[in-house]
Design brief:
Elements: H1 16-25, H2 34-47, E1 51-55, H3 58-68, E2 76-80, H4 89-93, E3 97-101, H5 112-124, E4 131-135, H6 144-153, E5 158-161, E6 169-170, E7 173-174, E8 181-185, E9 198-202, H7 205-215, H8 238-249, H9 251-268, E10 275-277, E11 284-285, E12 291-295, H10 303-312, E13 318-319, E14 335-336, H11 342-349, E15 350-353, H12 360-373
Parallel strand pairs: 2-3, 2-4, 3-14, 4-5, 5-8
Antiparallel strand pairs: 1-9, 6-7, 6-11, 8-9, 10-12, 12-15, 13-15
Helix pairs in contact: 1-8, 2-8, 3-7, 9-12, 10-12
The structure holds pyridoxal-5'-phosphate.
Pyridoxal-5'-phosphate binds next to helix 3.
């Protein structure tokens, strides 16, 4: 049996080990240190924001963002419905109530139409959301020209969940620069990884300082640590940050490669009437984190046939994220559709294909295997 081909394995650029050596030689083997400071500075500079706070995960980053926006028990928080649960689990940590907003067919991200329905409903019950979490899914930006005016109209702060979108650009602006607070994930499957990690970026330096305090167990300045608030152990380690710095050095190279992978799938399936690539918005440049195909409903081969068929060849493929309003844990919460149920449709049709840096050497075979199933 061949070595397994994974969906999105990590790929080291080379400099990571040098930064790790720096961390070792300075003996900063700790949940903070010079590599963390540099990593934060480099990411903030790349995104074009004033500050950054490196944390242990993207989920922790969303959690502290909600807290700093004052989200409390029973508050409403709107959230993209078509996403990974890391986007909305932190809403539950604070015992707030998620309201899920459907996807838009053009971007697969939050539908401005569904958001408008949700906001009108919130107004009608006289309970506006405390925050709106807008996700940039599969490395593609949401349509901020249409979403942000709605959020502003009602004065609701935005958390941009750019966990999957490091390096993506929308109308000349970096993903991660659209939210009042924006979040990245450096989980092992992401385009830039620290093995596990996350970051909040923002122009609001006071908010970042507050989150930093919470992320280090809310330790006061005194020698005995005076605790006036609940704390969390959420800071990123200096070693992880060293890996992250090496990854930022090669981010553009990785984006270019993933774009090549996407284009090759597009070309490979161009004569297959049942397969369409995911939409790519003209307003920007995704980071092409995952190549996702859509299988026509009339197709004789189902998405699961493709996933299982590739699985038999030791090739990992997966369905797209199952929308949150369809998840047993979340189905009791409000959901606003885009008129038609877009997320459900995408879930029925979508397949994520191997998209990692080194898949190019096996890509023709993967394309061929899929086309031969038809
Ligand atoms: C859209 C989205 N939001 C949030 C997260 C959570 O990030 P982490 O795994 O770093 O906690 C992830 C990924 O894992 C994600 O894909």
């Amino acid at each position: 049996m061949r070595e397994r081909i994974y969906l999105s394995p990590p790929h080291m650029g080379g400099n990571e080990i040098e930064y790790i050596k720096e961390a070792f030689s300075s003996n900063w083997i700790a949940p903070m240190g010079p590599q963390v400071n540099e990593f934060e500075r480099e990411v903030a500079e790349r995104i074009g924001v004033k500050g950054a706070l490196a944390l242990s995960s993207g989920t922790a980053a969303i959690h502290l963002s909600l807290k700093v926006l004052g989200v409390k028990e029973d508050d409403l928080v709107f959230c993209s419905d078509f996403t990974f649960s890391g986007s909305c689990n932190p809403i539950m940590y604070e015992k707030a109530k998620p309201v899920f907003i459907d996807a838009d067919p053009e971007t697969w991200n939050m539908s401005p139409k569904a958001l408008k329905y949700g906001l009108e409903w919130a107004k009608s019950i006289n309970k506006m959301p405390k925050a709106i979490i807008i996700v940039d899914l599969y490395g593609q930006s949401a349509d901020y020209e249409r979403l942000l005016p709605l959020c502003r109209e009602y004065g609701i702060p935005v958390i941009e969940d750019a966990a999957e979108a490091m390096g993506a650009v929308h109308n000349g602006r970096a993903c991660g620069s659209f939210g009042n607070l924006s979040v990245f994930s450096f989980n092992g499957n992401k385009i830039a990884t620290t093995s596990g990690g996350g970051m909040v970026v923002s122009d609001d330096l006071d908010a970042l300082a507050k989150m930093k305090y919470w992320s280090m167990q809310s330790k006061g300045d005194s020698l005995w640590y005076e605790h006036r608030e609940l704390g969390y152990n959420y800071r990123l380690s200096n070693i992880s940050a060293a890996i992250g710095r090496g990854q930022m050095d090669v981010l553009d190279k990785h984006i270019k490669r993933r774009e090549e992978v996407f284009k090759r799938y597009e070309e490979g399936f161009s004569n297959n009437e049942y397969i369409k690539m995911m939409p790519v918005s003209k307003a920007g440049r995704p980071n092409y984190w995952l190549s996702v195909i859509q299988i026509d409903e009339k197709s004789p081969v189902s998405p699961m046939n493709i996933i299982n068929g590739l699985g038999e060849e030791n090739i990992e493929a997966r369905p797209v994220w199952k929308p949150m309003h369809m998840q047993p844990y979340f189905e009791q919460y409000e959901f606003f559709a885009h008129d038609e149920y877009i997320g459900r449709e995408i879930f029925k049709k979508g397949v994520c294909l191997p998209s990692g840096y080194n898949v190019v050497s096996d890509q023709d075979e993967i394309i061929d295997l899929i086309n031969r199933m038809f």
